[in-house]
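Milestone 3.1: sequence recovery, worked example.
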C-alpha cells in the first residue's frame, strides 16, 4: 500500500505539494562582489520548509561546476553563474527574476 502525503492527503506517487511550492515561490538571482574581487551568485527567496534545499544546491553546484554553500536560507555559488542558474531553475519549474 502506498504512503499518504501529510500535506495534501494524496498518495505520494501523485502528490503535487512540491510542484505547487515551486510555482508559489519567487526566486531572485543576483551577483555580489566579495573580497579580492571574487564574484558570488546569490539565489534568494527559497523556502527551505517546503523544498529540499540540500538537493537543490547539489544540482546547481554540479550544473555550474563550482563550489557553494547555504547561508541564512540563501544559496551562494562561487563565480558569476546567473544564466546557468536561471536556466536550471526555469527547467525545474521555479519563477525566477534576475537582478
Amino acid at each position: 500500500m502506498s504512503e499518504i502525503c501529510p500535506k495534501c492527503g494524496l498518495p505520494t506517487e501523485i502528490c503535487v505539494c512540491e510542484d505547487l511550492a515551486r510555482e508559489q515561490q519567487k526566486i531572485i538571482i543576483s551577483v555580489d562582489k566579495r573580497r579580492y574581487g571574487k564574484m558570488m551568485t546569490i539565489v534568494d527567496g527559497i523556502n527551505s520548509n517546503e523544498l529540499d534545499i540540500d538537493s537543490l544546491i547539489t544540482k546547481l553546484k554540479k550544473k555550474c561546476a563550482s563550489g557553494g554553500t547555504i547561508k541564512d536560507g540563501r544559496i551562494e555559488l562561487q563565480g558569476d553563474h546567473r544564466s546557468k542558474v536561471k536556466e536550471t531553475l526555469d527547467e525545474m519549474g521555479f519563477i525566477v527574476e534576475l537582478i
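The mean pLDDT is 87. The helical segments are 17-24, 53-64, 82-92.
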